[in-house]
Amino acid sequence: MTLTKRIVPCIDVDVDETGEAAVYTGVNFEDLEHTGDPVELARKYNEAGADEFVFLDITASAEGRETMLETVSAVADECFIPLTVGGGIRTTDDIRETLRAGADKVSINTGALQRPALIEAGAEAFGSQCIVISVDARRRYDEAGEFYAEVDGESCWFECTVKGGREGTGTDVVAWVREAADRGAGELFVNSIDADGTKEGYDVPLTTAVCDNVSTPVIASSGCGSPAHMEEVFTEAGADAALAASIFHFEEYTVDEVKRYLDDRGVPMRV
C-alpha cells in the first residue's frame, strides 16, 4: 500500500510589541512580517483539510526561554489534526509539558544538537513517534564537511545551525540526521536557510541528501511558492511531507487546491 504524502501548514510564532503571541513570515530567517493570530490560523488550517500542523516558537531557543505553552494549548483546542510544536525544548520535562499542552509531537533542534542523548531519552519516555528532529541547514562551499552534493555545478555540503539559524555548528547535516535516526528520532524536519521565504522552490539537493541517507520520514520545509514545488520535492527528493507557510497564509493557494493539483499528477494524497 502506497503511503499518502502529507501537506503541512506551518506558523512561525513570536511575541509582538504588546507581549502577545503573533505569527510572522520572513525571508532567510530574517525580515519578519506580521502575518496573523496563531489560534485563528490553527482553526483555518484544521478546517481546510491540512494533514498536520506545525507551530514553531522561533525565538525561544535564541532567547533561552521556554515555549509559549498557553498559546500552544489554545492552538491545540482548535486543531484536531496532528500538531507538532517546536522552539526552546531542551529537556525531557520540556517535552512532557509541551505534550501536556496539547502537542502530538515535539520538534527539537538546538537542544538535541547540544545533547544528543535527549533524542533517546525522549523516544524512550514518550515514543519515537513524538520526537521530530528539526534541522536548520545552510550550504557551505568549503572542505569542512563530510557529505557533498552537486548544486549548480558546484560542490557543497550542508551545515546544521542553531538558534534560529543564527549560529553555525560545524556539524554536517547528513552525518547528524543519520545519528538522530539511530538514536530514535521518529521524523526529520528539514529546513533550508538558503531557500526560506524565497518561494523559488524547496532545496531539493538538501532534501535528497537527507532522504537518501535515512529511512526515517522526512518533512521538506522552506521555499515553497507553488504546488509544482511540492510535486518536485515529493517526486525528485523523496520527501514524505511538504511544509509551507506563505502560500497558505497569504491565500495564494488553498490546501485543497494543492492536494488536487498533486493528486491529478499521480502524487498519492488524502483528498
Briefly say what this structure is.
By secondary structure, this protein is of the alpha/beta class. It has helices at 38-48, 60-63, 69-76, 92-100, 110-114, 117-126, 173-183, 204-211, 227-237, 246-249, 255-264; strands at residues 6-15, 21-27, 30-36, 53-57, 83-86, 105-108, 131-140, 149-151, 154-162, 167-172, 187-192, 218-221, 241-244.
Can you characterise this structure?
- The chain is α/β, with parallel strands linked by helices.
- The chain has a single domain, classed as TIM Barrel, CATH 3.20.20.
- The chain contains eleven helices and 13 strands.
- An eight-stranded parallel barrel has the order 1-4-5-6-7-11-12-13, surrounded by seven helices.
- A hairpin with a 4-residue loop joins strand 9 and strand 10.
- Helix 1 runs parallel beside helix 3, helix 8 (204-211) packs parallel to helix 9 and helix 9 packs across helix 11.
- The two termini are 17 Å apart.
